[in-house]
Amino acid sequence: MHDIRSIRDNPDMFDAGMKRRGLAPSAADILALDAERRSTQTDMQELQARRNDASKQIGDLKRKGEDAEPLMQQVAAMKDRLASLEDMEKLYGKRLNDLLTSLPNIPADDVPDGKDEDDNKELRRHGRPGLINNPRQHFELGEELGLMDFTRAAKLSGARFTILQGQLARLERALGNFMLDLHTGEFGYTEVSPPLLVKDDIMFGTAQLPKFVDDQFIASRTKSRDELLAEALAHADTADLAALQKGDMTLTDVVANALSRAPTKEDLWLIPTAEVPLTNLVNNEIVDRGQLPLRLTARTPCFRAEAGAAGKDTRGMLRQHQFYKVEMVSITAPDQSQAEHERMVDCAETVLKRLDLPFRTIVLCTGDMGFASRKTYDIEVWLPGQNTYREISSCSNCGDFQARRMNARCRTAGDKQTEFVHTLNGSGVAVGRCLIAVMENYQQSDGSIVIPPVLRDYMGGLERIG
User: What is the pTM of this model?
Assistant: First the structure.
């Protein structure tokens, strides 16, 4: 989310940032709404002051025994006008908030300009693709081994799901455990086991909502009796409670009225990535600056509707509705985030180096970056079966963009002044895609798959699947 004060001070700079994103200028529209809202707030304050003065005069007139009716009528009219102004202020505020939250983050100065992935810049490569005669793709290898089943997965859940069995299922688990051990044991990340279902405001905090609602899965549930009673208490009308105290209403009537206002169902979102719950651990909190950076990691299932990916990678398990990923999240002070970003990329690269998988690292151009990111590095692993590099990790510095949506701040001990934290997230790495890379890069001519040495202890000493 963008800082309205910054836009007031530097509207041309804001529009220049949106232009780099390929968007039309919007500062003028934002400032017009902001001016209307502030003008309405001023009118409300002035009218409230006049109303307060008039109310005092009414009291004086009544004490003197004089006629206060004309002034009372004016106060009543002021009350109606105040209610109207409050509605207008809320409307302008909502429009302004909707506009500010619909616009992507401004790219960092060193992000290359460009329209799409063709304009991304390669920074470095590690390892050389091995010479494999007639390399097969992962789904061919998995099906021939009898350990990867797409037909039964489709019977259970539809397209874009996979069943792994036997040693392939164990290899997927081994990869996730290896990554967690590396990030926690060597890189100082704290392992977290977060909820997989989160509320609306949590999805909003990391900018999955409202813009990317079609890419998400939602789960609804009916609230329990105890929850409904708690909701009833929270939604009880003050007038009803006053009537209850006077004996004019029964408790049953108060609860019934309150329940009519309380929602009986609750919507929760399946997380598209552990970035969502991990980043939101500091939602609406003030963190001691001395504790930063916070480094968190988790291995979780991820759920994505892939609404914008129709027809892409329909064979195999490259693009799934459900997959595992080891996520890294850092919460930093503003002056720490740039160095932390480079460190995070190195952590993700180390995973692939230890597995001896060839990869390249690129920096995304302005037209290919994610909505919340101000700078993103992608790591692409070599897949012999496709004869190309494919993304396996994306590491982004979001600056204070998500922190403003979450109201996540930090403060030095003893100071009153706060500032928004910076948030970073990165795949460390996508477990399913890493499984694909291991299968294809370690495939043998007989269809078997050699286990990378670093994983063999996790596989009970097994050296080959086949």
Answer: 0.89
Compute the distance between CA of residue 204 and CA of residue 197 in angstroms, rounded to an integer.
Answer: 14
**Cα separation, 321 vs 301, whole angstroms:** 10
DSSP line for 19-50: HHTT----HHHHHHHHHHHHHHHHHHHHHHHH
Strand-pairing partners, residue 198, are: 269
From residue 176, how far is each of 21, 326, 434, 463 by CA, in Å?
35, 7, 9, 18
- Dihedral angle computed from the Cα positions of residues 9, 13, 17 and 22, in that order, rounded to the nearest 10 degrees: 110
Question: How far is 205 from 278, CA to CA, in rounded Å?
Answer: 11
Two tokens, residue 358:
């060839």
Q: What are the tens digits of pLDDT across the range 44-94?
A: 999 999 999 998 998 888 888 888 888 889 999 999 999 999 999 999 999
The closest of 205, 256, 208 to 232, measured between CA atoms, is 256
Backbone angles phi, psi at 92, to 5 degrees: -65, -40
Report d(CA 371, CA 355) in Å as an integer: 31
Place of tokens 């003893």: 414
